[in-house]
Each structure stands twice: as C-alpha cells, then as structure tokens.
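REQUEST ID: PR-0412
SUBMITTED BY: lab tech R.K.
PRIORITY: routine
TASK: structure prediction, single protein chain
INPUT:
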Amino acid sequence: MKDKYSRRDFLKTGVGLSAAAMLTGGKSLLKAEGNEGKMRVVSSGNGLRATEKAMELLRQKKDPLDAVIAGVNIVEEDPNDRSVGYGGLPNEEGVVELDSSVMHGPTHNGGAVASLRNIKNPSKVAKLVMERTDHVLLVGKGALKFAKSHGFKEEDLLTERSRETWLRRKEGLSERDFWFPPQPEVEGGFASFFEYHGTINCCAIDSMGNLAGVTTTSGFFFKIPGRVGDSPIIGAGLYVDNDIGAAGSTGRGEANILNCGSFQVVNFMGMGNSPEEACLKALEQIANTSKRLPHLLNDDGRPQFGLNFYAINKKGEYGGATMWSGSRYAVHDGKENTRKPCAYLFERKRR
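STATUS: complete
OUTPUT:
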C-alpha cells in the first residue's frame, strides 16, 4: 500500500529538515520545545479586553480554545464595537450577517459558521460545529438552524447606531433614487461608511505549550448579502498548527482568501521565521499577487487596502504586522496586558 505523508511528516524526515535548513540558515522551530509556563495571548487592536479575559482563564488551566472564545465573546456582545457581533454593521439590505472560525491545536480540529443571522456569538456556534458535527463549516440558514437546535436564541443584532449608519449610507448612494440624505449632510460625506470593516482575532498558548485561535466578524459594511470573507475560512482568517504556531487576520478578506494568508504565516514560522517576520512575509506575498488586480492598487502601484496578521509560535514568541503603518495589536505576555505597534510593509505618507 502506498505510504501517505503529511507536510509535517515530510519536515520530520531528513529531506524535509534539510530543505528547511536551506530556507532558514539552519534554524527550525520544529526542533524547539514548548515554552512551558510562558502563557501568551495575542489579539487584534480591539482585543485588549479579550487578551485580559483569555489570560485569566489560562491561569485557571482552562483549555486555550475556551479561553480565546471567552475573550472575543466580550467584543461580540459589545454594541459599541460595530465590527463584530451585536451592533455589527449590516449588509446592503440592513441585515447583520456574522462569520467566525475556531481551531484547536491539540486535536488539529476546527469549526466555522458564515452568513449567520440573529445569533450574537458566532464563535460559540463555530466551536459546536467543531465538537458536535463531522463538518467544518456551516452557512446561512443551515448554520442558524444548527445554532437554534443547540439552544441559541434568535435576537435582532442591529442596534440603533448601526441602523442609522446603514441608513445614511443608503441615502448617500445616488442622486437618482428616492432616498434623500438629511440636511446638512454628515461632515466628511459617506465614504468612511463604505470603507468601514473590522474583525477580532485572538490566539493563545497555554502553560503546556498548546495553541488555539478564533476569528469573528460582521464583515464588510454594506456587503452583498451572502458575502463571506476570510474570517470563517480555515487557512485564511485563522490557522493553528500545535507543533509550530497560530495566526489570524483582520482586514481585506478577499485578498487574504486568495493567498491562504494565515496558513502562510504559520508555514513561514515553521521555516524558522519569527512571528513578526512570518507576518511580514505573508503580507509581501499578498502585495505582490495583488499587483495583478489594478483596482486594488493606489497611484504608486501598492495595495490600497488594509490587512493585518497576528501570530504566536510554539516558544511563546509573538508579533503582528500590517500592510500600512499605524496599526496596533493587543498582547498579554503573562505580566502585562497592552497594545503594541504592528510592524508594517509600507509607511503611510504624512499629510
């Protein structure tokens, strides 16, 4: 019978290790031991409360996946964060659709939901998909029916603030329809509403060196109903390999999906790059492939969109990087919970 080898099996062979050595100057994280006792939690810039909560649970010896999900639940339930969960900005029909994925390092299992309506905590539903089904991804009506079968209650996720933002966007779309914007118009016009998007990613390593991650979002504001970004796609918005590390993303999901960005970050860490270096390499790869799509480029031929990666490796080292300068990420290193500046691929011009 023909032997089947995984990528991990290949790297553990002499050939694989030799290839890794050529790519990394002889250094490979695959030989590194887990950094026992050095717990870390990394999240996107809006995740400072998430990293605090996750670390609290890691100290209680909770599973790292339970810890990061509990952390992002705080943001999912916050009506003032318009990028995630309750209060998230809606699609073009005024309906909030949520996406989320989870991945558990010790079992290398994952679950996800997409285009989920009326359920505040998609990350919890994603975990149930992982634990209670033989599937990885449920979408739309099927995801909602599954959530309700497990006791989740439907509720209206559109807050008054988000509804007003949606209405202003709709009123400002065209001068040739029957919708009129209020007078005077909001200062700055409506472009900022169209560009608004956001997500929260959170990854952790516990005292035993086990990793887990979660990504959750309401996606692009005013998106076409049914649009799915990178957040619920394993390998794009989130990827975890318990032998190497974990990574997740926020920003333009379409560009990330086409490049399997979070998988690439973990792959680069497996080649011996630090988490920050791995994030930058993935961004560079995405910037290069984006040159084939002129509508994504600015006048200088660089990507005009934002994209961020956050990563943590088996040794407890962490880092974050962004396409354009100015972003920060949250990290709890076991002693301090703070935001740190992301490394960046391109520097924004000062106005």
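NOTES: Residues 33-158+196-346 form a domain with the Glutamine Phosphoribosylpyrophosphate, subunit 1, domain 1 fold (CATH 3.60.20.30).
REVIEWED BY: pending
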